[in-house]
Amino acid sequence: MIADRMQGFEASGIRKVFDLAQKIKNPVNLSIGQPDFDIPEEVKKEAVKAIEQGFNRYTITKGMPELCEKILGKARNENGIKAEDIMITSGVAGALTLAFLVLINPGDEVLVPDPYFVSFKHLVNLCGGKIKFVDTYPDFKITPERISPHISPRTKILIINSPSNPTGVVCKPQHLKEICEFAEKHNLIIISDEIYKDFIYEIEYQSIGKYYENTVTCGGFSKSHAMTGWRLGSAIGPAKIIDEMMKLQQYTYICAPSFAQAAGVKAMDVSMDAYIEDFRKKRDFVCDGLKERYELTRPDGAFYIFPQVPWGTDEEFVTEAIKHDLLIIPGRVFSEKKTHFRVSYAASLETLKRGVEILNSLV
Questions:
Q1: What is the CA radius of gyration of the chain?
Q2: Do 101 and 222 share a domain, yes or no?
Q3: 11 burial level (CB within 10 Å; 0-12, 13-18, 19+)
C-alpha cells in the first residue's frame, strides 16, 4: 500500500525528543533548534497589518517583487553573491526540496559532509540519488582533500551548510575558495544551506556563492528572526535552475505565506544584533562550562555545540541524560557515527546552567 520510496524514511530523531519533552514535567530542554526569543514586535505588527488589509491571497509563484528585490540586492551588494535570479520559498526546507527534485536524477551522486543536517540524507534518497558522505571529523572542516576521494563520473552535487547544524562550524574563506576551484574542475553544482548565516561570532561571514556562480544559495527568516512557523525562505542562483524550481513550486507549495512575505520586507530592516550578541554569550557560557570534561570544537556560528560522548555510544549517553531530565540529541541523527551529541544553546541562561551541571555530573 505504501510507496517504496518511504522505506528509507524514519521519524526524525529531533522530533522524537521534542515529543518526549511533552512527557517530562520540568525538562532541561537543550534539544530543539529554534530561537528562544520571539519575533520582533515591529515584524509581528507588519504581519497583522497585511492580514487586516486583505493581503491573504496567493502571491505570484516567484514571490513578492519587493521582497525578491530586497533579498537579491542584499545578497549581491553586501555578500558579493553572483546570482542571476531568486524565488521565495516555504522556508529553507522548501528551497532544498525543490532544488533536489529539479537537479537529482536516479543514480546521481551527492556529496554530503558528515555530520549533516537531517533533511539532506532523506531528500537525496527521495530523489533516487546516491549519497557519498564526506567524513569531516574531528574538526568538522570541509576541504578538497576530504572531498576528493569521493568523486566519480556520477558526482553531481556538493552540499554546504555553513554555519553548520549540528556543529556550528563555519567554512573559512580560504576553504571556500579551494572548494570552489575543486567544484569547477569537476563541474559540480553546489547547494548552500545558509539559514544560520546571521549567527556568526568573531569571524566574518562569507557565502560560497560569492566565489562560484553554479551555486544555489538557500536562506530564510526562521532562525534569524524566530519566524520558524511562518515558513519564509528564498533560493538564489542560476536562472535556469531557479526557473525549474519555480515551475515545480506551482504544483507543490504554490507560494510562501503571503502575510509572512509582507512581514519579511519589514524584517530585513530590523537590527538583530542584540539577539546575536546574546547568543554569543550563551555559546561562551556553555563551551566554558563543558570544556574541562568534554572534547568539543568551539563553534563559530549557529547555536549548537557537538561534543564527543565521554563514555558509551551516543544513544546510551543521551538515554542516561534523559533520566536526569536533560533533553539532548544523539549524534547519529546527524551522522553515520555514534560518537557525539548535539546541544542547542537556544535557551534561557537558567536552563543552560542546569544543563551544564547535569552534563558535567554525567562524566
A1: 20
A2: yes
A3: exposed
Number of domains within the chain: 2
Q: Helices 118-126 and 91-103, interaxial angle, to 10°?
A: 40
In terms of domains, do 133 and 207 share one? yes
- Sign for the pseudo-dihedral over CA of 194, 271, 287, 222: negative
Residue 100 and residue 78 share a domain: yes
Show which of 219, 246, 267 is a domain's final residue: 267
Tell me the torsion sign for CA atoms 99, 128, 194, 282. positive
| Domain span including residue 74 | 57-267
Kindly report whether the global pTM for this prediction surpasses the value 0.90: yes
We report the CATH number of the domain holding residue 317 as: 3.90.1150.10
**Average pLDDT of the residues in 315-337:** 94
Q: What is the CATH number of the domain that holds 244?
A: 3.40.640.10
Positive or negative torsion for Cα 248, 253, 254, 259: negative
Angle in degrees, CA 300, 301, 307, rounded to 5: 70
The answer to whether 98 and 249 have CB atoms below 8 angstroms apart is yes
Residue 73's H or E segment, with its range, is: helix 65-77
Together in a domain, 178 and 296: no
* Cα–Cα dist 298/305, whole Å: 7
Please check whether residues 318 and 221 belong to one and the same domain. Answer: no
Indicate whether 196 and 279 sit together in one domain: no
Q: Name 200's bridge partners.
A: 301
For 254, phi and psi rounded to 5 degrees?
A: 70, -65
User: In the chain, helix, strand, coil percent, each to 5?
Assistant: 40, 15, 45
Averaged pLDDT for residues 308-333? 95
Pairing of strands 109-114, 155-161: parallel
Per-residue model confidence (pLDDT) at position 340: 98
| pLDDT over threshold 90, residue 1 | no
- Which of 160, 246, 156 has the alpha carbon at shortest distance from 196? 160
Contact 288, 298 (CB under 8 A): no
d(CA 17, CA 322): 9
Q: What is the pLDDT of residues 264-292, one digit of tens each?
A: 999 999 999 999 999 999 999 999 999 99
Chain mean pLDDT for the chain: 95
Could you tell me which residues come within 8 angstroms of residue 187 by beta carbon, excluding any fewer than 6 positions away?
A: none
